[in-house]
Design a protein that fits this description.
Elements: E1 5-13, H1 20-31, E2 37-44, H2 50-57, E3 64-69, H3 75-85, E4 88-93, H4 105-115, E5 122-129, H5 136-153, E6 165-168, H6 169-173, H7 185-191, E7 195-201, H8 215-234
Parallel strand pairs: 1-2, 1-4, 2-3, 5-7
Antiparallel strand pairs: 4-6, 5-6
Helix pairs in contact: 5-8
Length: 245
């Protein structure tokens, strides 16, 4: 890739006009002077002033790039759009609602530096929320869903829904893509032979706006996705080694 950077931060957003620019400022404050980086906000068909606010913020934040889906395509597609466009060797993602704390990104980078030497190759450092700042319905449904997922997929991750992740761009693009892939990255990284590790991170109450997900619709979709990922794991075969002759 031309003009390769150390890190690309990808943030999917939809109707987050009050959260987007403050989150951008926090990301830049957390990373400036520590790593060469860019920030890609991927707008997924917002109908409020999110895009206009971000475009206006480019004057004060030269690291910012703004990508836009003309129509809503979902969080996973927005993440993939950002990763494909990214110039960083590593990619960090976080949710656009401001509940993930950008100050945790350096902790994920530090973990990557400590763990990455060795074999198999490190593919993912997954954030795990230390304390969920959501209502009890979301917390309970998430705990149940994570338990079922771990039981079936054996991915060793207690909080796969945390939006704060750090991963190799190349590793991500090697994964089979489907909608909601962002919730199954630990299992899919392991399927491809990558190593994963975890860092406990903060979680903050939502200050503005409303969640774009409902509890029931997410649960119904997750059951189908979970069965699909389990099938992918069972159908995977890895070569013992590859030689160039």
């Amino acid at each position: 890739m031309a003009n390769t950077l150390e890190l690309s931060v990808v943030v999917p957003v939809k109707d987050e006009v009050e959260n987007a620019v403050p989150l951008l400022n926090e990301i830049c404050a957390a990373l400036r002077g520590k790593v060469s980086f860019e920030v890609l906000f991927v707008d997924d068909g917002s109908r409020d002033g999110t895009v206009a606010a971000l475009v206006a913020a480019k004057a004060q934040s030269p690291e910012l790039r703004v990508l836009r889906h003309k129509m809503n395509s979902g969080q996973s597609r927005a993440v993939r759009t950002g990763v494909v466009a990214a110039r960083g060797l590593l990619v960090a993602t976080l949710d656009g609602d401001g509940q993930n704390d950008p100050a945790d990104i350096p902790s994920l980078l530090a973990m990557w530096s400590r763990v990455s030497p060795g074999s198999p190759t490190l593919g993912l450092v997954a954030g795990q929320r230390r304390k969920r700042e959501d209502n009890w319905v979301k917390r309970l449904s998430s705990r149940f869903g994570n338990g079922v997922r771990q039981w079936l997929l054996k991915d060793g991750t207690r909080d796969t829904g945390c939006g704060l992740k750090l991963f190799s761009r190349d590793a991500f693009l090697a994964l089979p893509y489907f909608d909601h892939i962002h919730r199954f990255m630990p299992a899919l990284m392991l399927r491809e032979g990558y190593r994963i590790t975890h860092v406990d991170v903060h979680h903050r109450p939502r200050s503005h706006g409303i969640s774009k997900y409902g509890t029931l619709d997410r649960a119904l979709v997750s059951i189908s996705d979970l069965m699909g990922v389990r099938w992918l794991k069972r159908r995977s075969r890895k070569p013992e080694g590859v030689e160039e002759l």
